[in-house]
Write a structure and sequence with these properties.
Layout (H helix, E strand, L loop, with lengths): L1 H17 L2 E7 L6 H17 L4 E7 L8 H15 L6 E5 L3 H11 L5 E5 L2 H5 L7 E5 L4 H11 L5 E6 L3 H17 L4 E6 L3 H9 L5 E7 L11 H10 L5 E3 L11 E5 L1 H16 L15 E6 H6 L12 E3 L5 H4 L1 H41 L3 E5 L5 E4 L22 H11 L4 H12 L5 E7 L6 E8 L7 E7 L1 H28 L1 H27 L5 H29 L7 E4 H18 L3 E5 L6 E4 L1 H18 L9 E9 L2 E8 L6 H6 L15 H11 L3 E6 L5 E8 L4
Parallel strand pairs: 1-2, 1-3, 3-4, 4-5, 6-7, 6-8, 8-9, 11-12, 19-21
Antiparallel strand pairs: 10-11, 13-14, 13-17, 15-16, 16-17, 18-20, 21-22, 22-24, 23-24
Length: about 725
């Protein structure tokens, strides 16, 4: 039984804990009054959202602004006694003029129900019997502060007019309100517009001096007893063109007032509801804060500020500004920014394009100027060989041997060359092959020379790949006939000098050559006499006679070879390049100067590599080089003592080149001689002309060879000459 009783008790306590709380709110006017509607809305919304448990809010509108008197209040008292006799609330809230009536009802119906009373002034609170079930706070209107705020915004104001209605409550408050207005503007002329009919009020307001501000406190009833709503009256005055209107009700903000220190009724309702929540939690009313319940804010209407030309600098820093109409920039900031950005970007792009266009035009003019100034015919081709741009043709074009008509823009340069190859010299085919290779990107650039259509003319075609994604090439065709003729004349002059040099060299070898020829001739004579003796005998020794005759033939061939070699050296060389064994050319020279070396008392030591050394060139010219170097070496060792006169002639192979080294044991060369070696007409010989080494160097260069000299270790000189190896 005990446990059952305990469970029932807990259930009852839980039920009590979860029971819905009931709050009764009594306000003096109807909900049509904006201040009442905002206050009750603030109370209800705060209780419903911040209460930890269910709560019901009942609001009773007493209509005391328009109805009053003892009989009306007794009727209300009887009505609410009957209405709530069986429904006890958990907390009571009463606002302003309804307070005396609710104090009476509380004492009769709900003496232990806590009540929070919100009145307009502190002296009203002091008249209440406050205790555990009653707490009074006041929320007065900041009339004086609003007047001061109006004078701060409009410092040239000379008159302050007070608008107040004729309801019983307004009549009671008239003296106090007047006192507060005067306190706010002690040095301004006070205009009393209280207690008037609505029509008289509107007329008086329209005729107010221009340096007047109007303080609208309330107008619930006019002098005829007509019930009104202050909000509607204020809108009428604003429509009539009243001077700047200030007020103490934030509910009027936006209906025509400039602003002021305004009662924020939703805020007042919120603060009231939070104190009621403490009562619902069981706190006694005496524990609630005493004194004023501050709910006034300094607020202004931006539209009225602009209308009355009130600068923002006059507003206090803490002032709120409502109904600010954002300008075009504030309203469409992002859109305008985007449009401006897009416009600036567009302008920037246009500027960049114009600059780029101007730069490209300048570059084109520069390119055209450079292109026009180039010698010969220059054409820019696409990847198919068609002309994109070409410089104007010169007088006579690139040469008399050029194609009949130079291709211009749009023509096919490649086809023109192909046509020239079909009808012209065969060398033009090399130009076609070069252009095709560059256009196909098999070559980056190349150069080819070919004969023109006219006899004796030469052209040079230089083609370079265009480093562009679409490919193409630059082709320049230049008439090089003059250069080719000059080269030919220089080559002929060089050959003439080389021939003279060879003749002089052979002349210097006269004694040696005579000795070379004398030997086979003497042998032929001896063998011929021997043959005669054999034929005059009784019997003929045929084998011996045959051997003698063979010796005669061999000696004759030997002498014939010497003479043929001399003739080859002495005659003007008109032979072209041919394939030779470089070792064979060197042996012939060594054989030619061998006797001369013996006569000089010098040792000529050949040291030729094994095997053939194939080269491509003019054999006579190359033998002249070997002859010059060998004779120079023999001259160099002349002053040396007998037995120390040695000359080595070596051949060797280095990679793809053939090297000839002529080494002597002479005095060697000084630094000055080494520096000037090879200069025309420079010689260290007493009777020399100084052309031997110069001609040898030019002959080697004509064969793509090189010549250089150096001092030999231990005394003497070393001459190196190299030539390209010609392999199959």
């Amino acid at each position: 039984m005990f446990w059952l009783w305990l469970l029932a008790l807990l259930a009852m306590r839980a039920e009590a804990t979860e029971r819905e709380k009931r709050v009764l709110v009594f306000v003096p006017e109807y909900a049509t009054v904006p201040a009442i509607a905002d206050f009750t809305r603030g109370v209800r919304r705060t209780l419903m959202t911040e209460s930890p448990g269910p709560v019901t809010v009942h609001v009773e509108y007493l209509g005391m602004a328009w109805f009053g008197g003892g009989e009306y209040e007794r009727a209300l008292s009887d009505f609410y006694r009957v209405k709530y006799r069986e429904q006890q609330p958990d907390a009571l809230v009463v606002y302003e003029d309804a307070t005396p009536l609710l104090l009476q009802i509380q004492r009769e119906l709900w003496p232990r129900v806590p009540m929070l009373a919100i009145v307009a002034d502190d002296f009203q609170v002091e008249a209440f019997p406050q205790g555990p079930y009653l707490r009074g706070n006041w929320a007065d209107f900041a009339i004086t502060e609003s007047v001061r705020a109006a004078l701060r915004l409009l410092p040239d104001t000379r008159h302050v007019a007070l608008v107040l209605g004729s309801s019983p409550r307004e009549k009671i408050a008239r003296a106090l309100v007047t006192q507060e207005v005067r306190r706010g503007a002690p040095d301004r002329v006070f205009i009393d517009l209280a207690g008037l009919t609505l029509e008289e009020l509107r007329r008086r307001v329209r005729t107010l001096p221009p340096d007047t501000v109007v303080m609208m406190v309330g107008f619930m009833q006019d002098a005829t007893g007509r019930s009104l709503i202050s909000y509607d009256v204020m809108r009428m005055l604003h429509a009539d063109g009243a001077p700047p209107i200030f007020s103490v009700h934030k509910t009027m903000l936006g209906s025509g007032i400039v602003g002021g220190v305004l009662a924020d009724y939703p805020l007042l309702g919120q603060k009231t509801a939070r104190r009621v929540l403490r009562l619902l939690q069981g706190e006694p009313a005496s524990s609630l804060p005493t004194g004023s319940m501050e709910a006034n804010v300094l607020a202004f209407d931006a539209r009225e500020l602009e209308r009355w030309h009130i600068p923002a600098s006059r507003l206090p820093p803490e002032a709120e500004v409502h109904f600010h109409e954002p300008g075009l920039w504030e309203r469409y900031r992002w859109q305008v920014s985007a449009l401006l950005g897009a416009g600036l970007l567009k302008v920037g792009l246009i500027a960049v394009l114009l600059l780029e266009r101007s730069r490209r035009k300048r570059a084109q003019r520069l390119n055209l100027a450079v292109l026009d100034s180039l010698p010969g015919s220059v054409a820019i081709l696409d990847r198919h060989g068609s002309v994109l741009r070409a410089n104007p043709a010169r007088d006579g074009g690139p040469g008399e041997g050029a194609p009949e008509r130079l291709p211009t823009s749009g023509d096919s340069y490649l086809e023109s060359l192909r046509e020239a190859a079909r009808t012209g010299p065969p060398e033009v085919a090399h130009a076609v092959a070069l252009l095709e290779a560059v256009l196909a990107e098999r070559l980056r650039e190349g150069l080819v020379e070919f004969r023109g259509h006219s006899p004796g003319t030469w052209l040079e075609l230089r083609v370079r790949h265009l480093e562009l994604p679409e490919g193409g090439a630059v082709a320049s065709l230049v008439d090089v006939t003059s250069r080719k003729r000059a080269e030919q004349e220089a080559r002929q002059a060089r050959d003439e000098r080389a021939h003279l040099e060879r003749v002089a060299a052979v002349g210097e070898l006269g004694v040696s050559l005579a000795h070379e020829l004398n030997q086979p001739l003497a042998a032929i004579l001896t063998n011929a006499q021997t043959a005669q003796r054999l034929l005059s005998g009784s019997s003929i020794n045929a084998p011996l006679l045959r051997e003698v005759l063979q010796d005669i033939v061999a000696d004759d061939l030997r002498a014939s070879a010497v003479i043929r070699h001399l003739r080859m050296l002495l005659k003007k060389d008109e032979a072209g390049h041919a394939r030779h064994d470089f070792n064979a050319l060197v042996r012939d020279v060594i054989r030619l100067v061998g006797n001369d070396a013996l006569l000089r008392g010098a040792d000529l030591i050949p040291d030729l590599c094994e095997g053939a050394l194939p080269i491509l060139g003019n054999g006579v010219q190359l033998q002249q080089v070997v002859l010059n170097l060998t004779v120079n070496a023999l001259d160099a060792v002349g002053p040396s003592p007998s037995g120390a006169r040695r000359v080595w002639v070596r051949t060797q192979r280095h990679g793809d080149r053939v090297e000839l080294v002529v080494e002597d044991t002479g005095e060697g060369m000084t630094d000055e001689v080494l520096a000037r070696l090879g200069e025309p007409f420079f010689t260290t010989k007493r009777e020399g002309m100084g052309m031997g080494l110069s001609i040898s160097r030019s002959l080697l260069e004509a064969h793509h060879g090189r010549l250089h000299a150096e001092r030999r270790a231990g005394g003497g000189s070393l001459f190196h000459c190299t030539l390209p190896l010609q392999l199959d």
